[in-house]
Amino acid sequence: ETGVTQSPTHLIKTRGQQVTLRCSSQSGHNTVSWYQQALGQGPQFIFQYYREEENGRGNFPPRFSGLQFPNYSSELNVNALELDDSALYLCASSSRQNLNTEAFFGQGTRLTVV
Amino acid sequence: RKEVEQDPGPFNVPEGATVAFNCTYSNSASQSFFWYRQDCRKEPKLLMSVYSSGNEDGRFTAQLNRASQYISLLIRDSKLSDSATYLCVVNRNNQGGKLIFGQGTELSVKP
User: Fold this and answer.
1) A35-58, pLDDT tens digit by residue?
2) CA–CA distance, B64 with B71 (Å, rounded to integer)
3) DSSP-derived 3-state class of residue A18
4) Contact check, Cβ <8 Å, A102/B32
5) B50: nearest CA in chain A?
6) Is the Cβ pair A33, B104 closer than 8 Å?
7) Contact B106, B21 (CB under 8 A)
8) What does the pLDDT read at residue B52?
9) Does the beta-carbon distance from A100 to B96 stay under 8 Å?
10) Is the pLDDT of residue A101 over 70?
11) Nearest Cα to A31, choosing from A105, A92, A89?
């Protein structure tokens, strides 16, 4: 087990709704990254949080937003859900101080938008 | 064109076979390189980092050619338990976590 936990594990939402996904990072890690993995594709980088601020963003619209808390846990919020948002959402924690750090992934949240 | 490209497969091989996966990346600023393994409906897990000098971990050998922007993974003596999707991954700035993934190559090892 990596020590990175995500909740919930599965979620079904209706188009237009909003969703919040949660991630607890591994002990000693101060950086959290979020990825979206569509079926049959590799994970796509959404954004990264470090010291409670967004630190880099992939090609995702503003309706994808996030937060990082003082304990380094993080939330991913998606507004105005679209059918194409159906995917596995992965959280990865790492340590910014270690330049060759490995990123450890949580088990993911599988979101289905109907 | 995707920043990291892999042959999606699937690769279907018998136990004991040697199988090679190839990957190319387009951004010459990429600094760190990895192979991750992802089992069905699970999270990706680091298999090995890839260095310019090449590196080996048991039955697994990874190679990096920076001039050609090409990464490879060789699996010798395939086991049934090697069946998974193998993801080629690059990191532009060595800060960990901002990873660029290929689409993955599916491997199925048969008895």
Assistant:
1) 999 999 999 999 999 989 998 899
2) 5
3) coil
4) no
5) A100
6) no
7) no
8) 87
9) yes
10) no
11) A92
